[in-house]
Amino acid sequence: MLDGVFFSHAIAWLIGAMTVCAAGFTFAALFSLGRSGYRKD
Length: 41
Hints:
By secondary structure, this protein is mainly α. It is built from 1 helix and no strands. The protein has one helix spanning 4-36. The mean pLDDT is 90.
């Protein structure tokens, strides 16, 4: 079970999950920065 193939797949899935999360947070941050110029607080 805990062989090289398992670890390579686990690392690949971890990197993929981190990439998806980073892309989502980056989009949210840019969207928030873009919208902040239009608000009149």
